[in-house]
Amino acid sequence: MMEKMLKGIRVLDFSRYLPGPYATLRLAEKGADVVLAEPPDGEPARSLNRTVFAANNRMKRSVTLDLKKELDRRMAIELAAKADILVESYRPGVIDRLGLGYEAVKRQNPAIVYCSISGYGQDTDGMHHLASHDLNYMALTGMLSQLKDEHGKPVHPSIQIADFLGGLTASEMILAALVHRFRTGEGAYLDAALTDGLYAMMNTNYAISKENGGHKGIKEISGEKVCYHLYETMDRRYVTLAALEPKFWRAFCEFAGRKDWLSRQFVRAEKGFPIYEQVSAYFLSKPLEEWMEISLQLDCCLTPVMEIGELDQYPLWKQRAMTIRNGSQLATMYPVPEKISEAPKQGEHQTDIVNEWLHQGVHTTGGDKR
C-alpha cells in the first residue's frame, strides 16, 4: 500500500549529495514519480561516492539538463510547469540566477510545492552563503555536545545525522504542503534548513538544560544510571539495557536472581558503585549470542548492539520484510515492494520524461542518453 500512496505525483529533483536525494527517495518509496534533473557532468555524488548515489537514488528516473544553456532552461521550466513538487539544494541564490527560482516557476505553475534545502536557510545574514557539512550542523545546534565519551570529548558520529534528519524534515514539510494544496489549491515555498531540523530536535534537551543548570539531557536516559546503560559482554560486544520503568527493572533483576538490586535502579553507572560493578560483571558472564537469545524472551528492554553486516540475520528485519538487495555494487536495505528499480543511469529517461510530462505520451522503456 505504501508504494501507491503518492502515485501520480510528479517530483522534479535538482538536489544533490545526500539530504535532498534522501528526501525525494522517501517520496519515491511512496509511489511518486521522481525525476532527477542532472547537470551534464552528472549529480556530483555519482563521482564522489557511487554507493551513496545508488543507495539514495533508486526508484527514480533521470534527465540531463544544462541550466547554463537557454534551451535546457526552457525545458526545465516546462518540466517544472508539469510537476507537483520541485526540490533543489543549490547554495542560496544560485538557482534564481539560473532562471529556475521559485518566482520563475510559480509564474508557470502557481500550485507548485517548491522546496529549497540548504544548511542555514535561504536568507540568514552572515551564514547562508557558507559551505558546511553534517559535522558542522551537529556542532552548531548542540547535537554534537550530547555525544561525549567518558572524558567529555565529543564523539565523531559515523552516520550523517544532520543530512538524513534534514531529508526527513524536508519530506515532512513537502507532504504537509501537498495536503494544504489539495485542500486549498495553493502552492507553497519551503525553506528547509538542515540546522532547523536538528535545532528543533534539541527541544527537550534544551528545556531540561535550562531547568537543571546546564545538564546535557534527561539524567535517567543519558547513560548515567545503572538501569539505562550500555554494557560489555564476554566477547567484547555490547548490549543496551533500557529498563527505565520499574516493571522492566524488576523483570531484569528477577531473571538475574538478584532481588537485592531492585531498590538500586537509579544508582549511578560508575566504577566504585557496587551495583554497577555487579551488573557489569553479570553482562560480562555471557557472550553476545546468549544475550541476544535472552533479549528475545525476556521483556525488560534489552537489545544487542548489532553491526551493520549482521542486520540481515536478525529476526526483526526478516519479519518486517526488510531485505538486502545487491545491485549497482552496493547492498541496499529496503522494505520490499512489488518492484524496486536501481538508481538510474545519467539521462536514461530523457525521451520518456519529455513524452510523458510535456507531450502526454505513453511511457516507453529505455531513454535518450543525450
From TrEMBL:
GO terms for molecular function: transferase activity. Pfam families: CoA_transf_3 (PF02515). Signal peptide: none annotated. Keywords: Transferase. Coiled coil: none annotated. SUPFAM superfamilies: CoA-transferase family III (CaiB/BaiF) (SSF89796). It comes from the Bacteria. InterPro entries: CoA-transferase_III, CoA-Trfase_fam_III, CoA-Trfase_III_dom3_sf, CoA-Trfase_III_dom_1_sf. This is CoA transferase. It comes from Thalassobacillus devorans.
